Give the backbone structure.
Amino acid sequence: MAETAEDLLLDSNEYLKSGIHIGTKFKTKYMANFIYKTRPDGLSVLNLKKIDERIRVAIEFLSHYEPQDILVVSRRENGWKALKKLSTLTGMKVITGRYPPGILTNPNLSTFTEPKVMVVCDPWPDKNAVEDAARVGVPVIALCDTNNQSNNIDLVIPCNNKGKKSVGMVFYLIARDYMKRKGLLRGDEEMPAVIDDFTEE
């Protein structure tokens, strides 16, 4: 699993420190291709190179859209801090906590919104958002752990979607590279945030 730093978006030690590769004891057939091995304690370990590849694909895909056309959803609290920071830096729309029913499907609601792409932190607690997106034909990118199913998901980012540090790491990388691609950072300008801003309380 050791990769040289040049091959990855981030030094592999940074990735490993966040626990991004530690899955659950349960694995679905949908996630089998992303699993590197199963540890003696029964936890599945995700392939770091595949995690990195999928984050890159997600960034490339998202960079074709303006921030206001992207909706990022996290029912579970472990993603709230990362999403708020992502929104502050990039202008992407986020929903933290309970997903309001009908906001994609009912034009009569004052909160009605028409995103062109959706990102969810976990397709299980965020299933209402995923179902709404499928109904209106909006592509969905989802952070998926070893126990997730990929129904109605257009792009899976395999990762530990239970840990704050891991989820924060994914959104830090998305924010950093999205901002570069959209010209929100000039030249060698550093992103005005660090990984801890996405992960620490």
